[in-house]
Amino acid sequence: MIQRFKRALLILCLTGTALFAATENRGISIPYVAFPMKEGKGMYSTKGKCNMCHSWGYTINQGPQSKKFWHEKVIKMITVFHAPIKPEDIDEVVEYLYENYGNGKEE
After folding, report:
1. Which stretches does DSSP call E strand in the chain?
2. SS3 for 106?
3. 65 with 102: CB under 8 angstroms?
4. What pLDDT does residue 32 have?
């Protein structure tokens, strides 16, 4: 009985102290970082599909890649992360990525 009381008191103290934590404004702000997309055919469609889950920065951080790489990346996003890309839209997304962020190699 005393053991339960001690445990409950400890939990109450630990959770209660968070309620009284200092929350003064220290002037900290998180900057907004824009990742502009290159203009091109399929840009808006690709932006809508990719940015549903992550920023465009994730995409451009991949660096210039082959068409095969972009195709595999799009398939991975669909199968592993359930990206909202319909089968009929895969080619458009891959073409946009390859044309604007590709390295000129097919494989």
Report:
1. none
2. coil
3. yes
4. 81
* CA dist list (Å): 93 to 66, 88, 89, 102, 107: 14, 10, 6, 12, 17
Residue 101 has pLDDT above 80, yes or no: yes
Give 25-67 pLDDT, tens digit per residue. 677 787 888 889 999 999 999 999 999 899 999 999 999 999 9
pLDDT at residue 20, rounded to an integer: 64
Distances (CA, A) of 89 to 15, 52, 97: 49, 15, 13
The pTM (predicted TM-score) of the whole model is 0.70
Q: Taking Cα atoms as reference points, which of 90, 95, 3 lies closest to residue 49?
A: 90
Which amino acid type is present at position 1? M
Token pair recorded at residue 102: 């590709």
In this structure, the number of other CB atoms found within 10 A of the CB of residue 90 comes to 15
Domains assigned to the chain: 35-107 (1.10.760.10)
